[in-house]
């Protein structure tokens, strides 16, 4: 319908079934330079976008795998469609700040996993076989398997990828990274349960702080908040 260059640009812009404002501006600029009526062009563009969305929808199998929610996924900037590498909190092309309306989703997932482990402990304590097995394991120096599983979950949990998630994660995790009680009360059952995980939480906070400092060099305000959290528990 239009010249080859414009048709190619349209196909590239619509290849993912989405049309960003930046892509639309570029297409309209090219159409105007080619002397095409912009109202007509917009109508054609909308029709092509609708067709592409329907095509993508029909090609997607009903049993397709769910969209990945890994924090390290590479994404496109919603403002200019530039590729945003993992752990970026701001677009390097246009300066758009990435935000997450579900800012506490990371920490929620983590605590759900830890609560599931604790439920295993409760189930074991109500089972004679489970309780006997736990005592035997401790007697053989194997330690508390539930606690070890929690440590593994915390250590291996993905680092958040947005500024809001990072700050939310740190604000919630830091109290868990502090040792609880004094030299007389540290070994009480309640404090011991907390303190067994404190060093693991500390390591996780340290990991997040280091990554955030590296990726947020240009975001001075957020970097100040990150360093404030770090100072609370003695991360240098």
- Sheet with the most strands? 2 strands, antiparallel
Low-confidence sequence ranges: 63-74, 137-143
Question: Got a strand count?
Answer: 2
Fraction of residues in β-strands? under 5%
Roughly what is the average pLDDT, rounded to an integer?
75
Numbering strands along the chain, what is their spatial order in the largest sheet?
Answer: 1-2
Ends distance: 62 Å
What's the alpha carbon Rg, rounded to whole Å?
A: 26 Å
Count of folded domains: 2
Level of helix content?
55-70%
Order of helix and strand elements from N to C terminus = HHHEEHHHHHH
Question: How many DSSP helices?
Answer: 9
Helix/strand/pairing category = mainly alpha
Globally, the shape reads: elongated
How would you describe what is shown here?
By secondary structure, the chain is an all-alpha fold. It folds into two domains: 1-59, no CATH class; 105-232, no CATH class. It is 61% helix and 2% strand. The protein is built from nine helices and two strands, in the order H-H-H-E-E-H-H-H-H-H-H. The protein has helices at residues 4-13, 21-33, 38-59, 105-125, 128-139, 145-156, 163-177, 189-215, 220-232; strands spanning 75-76, 83-84. A two-stranded antiparallel ribbon has the order 1-2. Strand 1 and strand 2 (83-84) form a beta hairpin. Helix 4 (105-125) runs antiparallel to helix 6 (145-156) and helix 7 packs parallel to helix 9 (220-232). The longest helix has 27 residues, at 189-215. The protein is elongated, with a radius of gyration of 26 Å. 15% of the residues are buried. Residues 63-74 and 137-143 have low confidence and may be disordered.
């Amino acid at each position: 319908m239009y010249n080859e260059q414009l048709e190619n640009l349209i196909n590239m812009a619509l290849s993912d079934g989405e049309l960003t404002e930046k892509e639309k501006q570029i297409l309209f600029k090219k159409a105007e330079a080619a002397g095409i009526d912009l109202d007509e062009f917009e109508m054609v563009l909308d029709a092509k976008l609708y067709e592409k969305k329907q095509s993508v929808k029909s090609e997607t199998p009903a049993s397709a795998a769910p969209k990945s929610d890994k924090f390290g996924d590479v994404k496109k900037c919603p403002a200019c469609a530039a590729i945003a590498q993992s752990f970026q909190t701001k677009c390097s092309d246009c300066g758009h700040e990435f935000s997450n309306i579900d800012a506490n989703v990371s920490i929620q997932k983590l605590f759900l996993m830890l609560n599931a482990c604790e439920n295993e402990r409760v189930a074991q304590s109500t089972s004679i076989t489970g309780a006997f097995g736990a005592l035997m394991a401790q007697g053989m120096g194997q330690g508390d398997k539930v606690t070890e599983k929690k440590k593994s979950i915390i250590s291996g949990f993905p680092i958040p990828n947005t500024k809001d998630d990072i700050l939310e994660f740190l604000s919630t995790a830091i109290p868990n990274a502090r040792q609880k009680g004094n030299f007389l009360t540290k070994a009480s059952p309640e404090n011991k349960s907390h303190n067994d995980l404190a060093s693991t939480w500390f390591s996780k906070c340290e990991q997040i702080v280091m990554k955030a400092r590296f990726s947020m060099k240009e975001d001075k305000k957020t970097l100040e908040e990150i360093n404030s959290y770090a100072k609370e528990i003695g991360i240098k």
